[in-house]
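Here is one chain, start to finish.
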Amino acid sequence: LHTPMYFFISMFGTCEIFFVSSIVPILLLNLIADMKSISFTGCFVQVCAIATFGSTECHLLAVMAFDRDLAINYPLHYSRIMRRDFCILLVVLPWALCIINALIAMFFTAGYKYCGSNELNHFMCELGPLQHVACVVPPTNRLTVTITEIYGIVLPFTVILLLYIHIITTIVRIRGEKSKRKAFSTCSSHITVASLFYGTAIIANMVPQTNNTSKYFSIIYTLVTPSVNPFIYTLRNKDVVTAFRKLKAKL
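Its structure:
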């Protein structure tokens, strides 16, 4: 459990807990208590929290991809490079940069002019829906928010994509099916988690904000995916798989 891979998984899991916690309480309040309103300040606090934890998740997924790439392509140098202090730096740096990035996004989104209806066709306060209800969006503000979104989502996605191209190229060159399967198994869980998160997030942002489909896809990547991720990573553990098979045999 002290290996870099499990360290990054634990940090990613912690970030997911914060991410879900920034959404679920207000969501339940809206659904159960039928309280459909949120204060202006509360809305932007949620924007900042979602942007911070969401973008940190994206960057941690990129860090985990880097870890897998290093393990597969440079196994002899892995232990020397992935020292404890370097692993901590790879976690702390994304957190710090994503907090700053989220604060910038929140500040410039708050600079929009909200003079019409302040009703959001969404379950939570996010950058996209807020931009949609704004009646005046200054070009500088729009550009700055777009840059923060590129840094928070697109940049880590590009890094993950490039690293996996490198990983897959290496795996294809490996001789022997057993060795290929072993190499692929080290990153299969991460590929699944990254695909689920980015797949639904990209679809949610591609669908027009006037369409109800967008907010339902947002529920998938903000609530459903974090709930499924522990099972995806747990099923890689041999002890868990063995226990699951024994339970299945008894049933």
